[in-house]
Amino acid sequence: MAKPLPECSPRRFLFVVVPEFSMMPYTAAIEALRAANRESGADLYHWQTATIDGDVVAASNRTRIAPDCALAEAQAADVIVVCSGLNAERHGSPALFAALRRAARMGAMLGSVCTGTVLLARAGLLEGYRCTIHWEDVASFAENFPALHVTTRLFEIDRDRFTCSGGTAPLDLMLHFIERDYGHDLALEVAELMLHHGMRVSEEPQRLSLRERTGLAHAKLLDALARMETAIETPEPIEAIAAAAGLSPRQFERLFHDHLATTPSRHYLHLRLKRARHLLQHTSAPIMQVALSTGFASAAHFAKCYREAFGHPPRVERRSDKVEGVKA
Question: Which of these, 86, 99, 244, 290, has the minimum number of CB atoms within 10 Å of its CB?
Fold first, then answer.
């Protein structure tokens, strides 16, 4: 049964957006609050959007939005949500970090969606808290903030902090808040209005299963692929992976050829180089450290493989003007 609607003031959210923020997580969160107000027929939630300087800001999809105000002029909020996306490490500022720390001292609940976790961490606001981030950024985030407890969950709520992965996951996060505030029935009504089939819990994985991602049904091949994905820093011999999956080397080669049109060694190398590229783009770790973190013992061998895969040496990824792909 839905909880009785309160007679207290609406819960106030402040969304702080930085350049190149991801549009989907931002709108998913706000739309859930709007839908809760509509379905309840009450003014349960208020929200504002702020930027550091109050100027129009472009999302990662290049859509430009006009904020309600500059961060310093925002109304007092119960919950502050930092929204980021691409190149989060470039969009922090002393003014932003100071404002977030001040809000924390005043008792606001602080959170983030997508790579906003990076900005909370840089502000020193996640020490001693569990946190999560978009799955694509987990490795680089852990590299940059080794002392933090980072998970791969859909979202994390730890006392007065919350972090959320990205994509549509903020909708699940907000449904959790709505359920906690006003009951399961209202949360279900919001989920149905948003055509969201089921409210995912925080423990659910961010990524699709390997079976869903690859379209494969061969259990032994899937086991081998999973083993490769988890052994990036210390690669296992191909023969050992095949044996662990219960396959002979010849069977292993044939399965990769028939189902993936490649060889086991080439697929494994691609996984390691893809991880290396992300670390180069999103951490300040020395190139040799990135090489070691992805299973290359020699800088020369790493550079050779990298150039063959991407057409340029690893150092090019560190150029500040390099264009990166769009994250959901």
Answer: 244
Question: What's the burial of 155, exposed, middle or buried (CB within 10 Å: 0-12/13-18/19+)?
Answer: buried
CA–CA gap between residue 107 and residue 118 (Å, rounded): 21
Rounded-to-integer distance, Cα 111 and Cα 161, Å? 5
pTM of the model: 0.82
Taking 70 as the pLDDT cut, the residues of the chain under it are: 1-8, 319-328
In 3D space, the residue among 269, 307, 275 whose CA is nearest the CA of residue 293 turns out to be 275
Alpha carbon separation from 216 to 194, 213, 238, 246, 270 (Å, rounded): 31, 8, 20, 17, 18
Neighbours of 286 (CB within 10 A): 10
The total of other beta-carbon atoms located within 10 Å of residue 208's CB is: 9
Which pairing describes strands 149-151 and 64-65: parallel, antiparallel, or unpaired? unpaired
Which residues are CB-contacts of 163 (< 8 A; sequence separation ≥ 6)?
A: 111, 112, 116, 117, 120, 126, 131, 132, 133, 155, 156
Residue 134 corresponds to which amino acid?
A: H
**CA 130 to CA 166: how far, in whole Å?**
16
- φ and ψ at residue 82, rounded to 5 degrees: -90, 120
Q: Longest C-alpha distance within the chain, in Å? A: 70
Integer angstrom CA distances of residue 251 from 214, 238, 268, 319: 19, 12, 17, 43
Return the pLDDT at 6: 56
Q: To which residue do tokens 């859909």 refer?
A: 154
Domains of the chain: 11-193 (3.40.50.880), 210-318 (1.10.10.60)
